[in-house]
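Quick one, T. Sequence first:
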Amino acid sequence: MPRVIILTGDAAETLEVFYPYQRLQEAGYEVDIAAPEKKKLQFVVHDFVDGFDTYTEKPGHSWEADVAFADVNPADYVAAVVPGGRAPEYIRNDEDARRIIRHFFDADEPVAALCHGPLLLAAAGVLKGRTSSAYPELGVDVELGGGTFVEGGGVVDGNLVSGRAWPDHPTWMRAFMDLLTARHPVD
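Structure tokens:
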């Protein structure tokens, strides 16, 4: 069974971890959640409240990480997913997280990034010359990482599929599943 890795950590957006996790399992892929260390992660829920200029954050679900970044052999996986929330703000500083992401781009294997997920891609140096979506306020980060920011729900550039946030799940994950199943179908 082909394996997919989700790179995340504490303060990841609950919906942005669980939706791809369950969708990939439903399609027959084995999914591992990787984090800075193998431990119980605390996710969050972001929501929009009238009168606020940005999203609010509340505690979400907790979930065990399957593997620490340092112990990941990315060649064991056919694709990677980087959900948003605040986790990408700090996992981008982890050399092993950057190593894992660079592997997928060097190997031209499918990568899905949502919301704040492109922060890790920028830190890994893989957005140069790429088109990527992200949470709209991160457009400047995509551009500082050498990419072209496009606000869209299922933006595809080669092996990269990106989107703005959890409301984009249908278009983002549909585009990613099309790419993944074309390259690595489940038998």
